[in-house]
UniProtKB/TrEMBL annotation:
UniProt entry tagged with the keyword Disulfide bond: no
Cell compartment(s), UniProt: Membrane
Primary location class: membrane
InterPro entries registered for this protein in UniProt: 7TM_GPCR_serpentine_rcpt_Srd, GPCR_Rhodpsn_7TM, Nematode_rcpt-like_delta
Membrane topology: Multi-pass membrane protein
Name the UniProt record assigns to this protein: G-protein coupled receptors family 1 profile domain-containing protein
Transmembrane segments: 6-26, 85-111, 123-143, 180-205, 225-249, 261-282
Record keywords: Membrane, Transmembrane, Transmembrane helix
Protein's organism: Caenorhabditis angaria
Domain of life, per lineage: Eukaryota
Family, per entry: Belongs to the nematode receptor-like protein srd family.
Any single Gene Ontology cellular-component annotation: membrane
Amino acid sequence: MWLILYHFSAIIIGIFLNTLLIFTILKKSPPNIKKYAVMILNFAITDLLATILDGLVMQRLVACGISVVYISMGPCNWISSRFCFSLYILDVHMFTHTIWILICSFLYRYYVLIHPELSRLKIQIFITLVYLPSSLILSNIFLNTDSEHDAFKIMTKSHPEINITGLTLSATCSIFEIHVMYTIIVVVGLGPPLTITCFILRNLIIQKVKVSLNSSDSKKLHLQFIQALTFQACIPVFYVFAGMCYIVQVFDLITNEYPADLLFCFAIIVPILNPISSFIYIGPYRKFIGSFFRKQQGLQPCLVHPMNISSTIN
């Protein structure tokens, strides 16, 4: 029960924050961050879809030797196990794409410190190319032919102690099939190196920006910039934790239910943290959200010091 409540709470928060961020990007992005806003918009749409899909599936994984059985606890089980499995693969591919976009955002910030800004079209083309590794995960929908009957047979044989009556099950009969191994490598194997890459790019960006410091105001902005980059570089760590839970669960390294429960508990945090980072560290968005909530509380808007607006990340 706690797992369903956790997912439900995270889903409501994630949908609200990402919907609000999409509206803010479309309506409140000033000209000086229009190009970077393309990347943030991709973030927000991907996170919104990932949150919705997670709410529809609410998946749990059960290791069964070289097989994995998926127990779907979300509304998708009103339709079919195949539908639940397809939504699960879509969800995994969205979560993976989020990490790649995060890498893109760091690469873009470093690139514009050395070269002229890219056009919006080139940014979108770049994001599309980066999407390709994640898109190949969708092949699981078509290549996985294991039926619900197979899932029940596997569970009955491997975990006879678990009551599976009335549950919606799907399965991957062998994790050593090419399309399954590819998914494991992309989702789990790339998590740590991509996280390390974020921190490396963070340090490179900070070093480049530090060269241009020549006043106390600049140093203050630099400190804010470091805080923003550090916060965003830490976000993929939750995917690393989720990946560790996946490995522990799939290879049956710990024989209890906690890795299966924690896997998506870690993953669902990311679509919440991404919009929060945008609202905190992107000046125009922070100003809009502040005025939005003051209006909801019936308060008069307060004056915003120009320094707070000029701390925009671009």
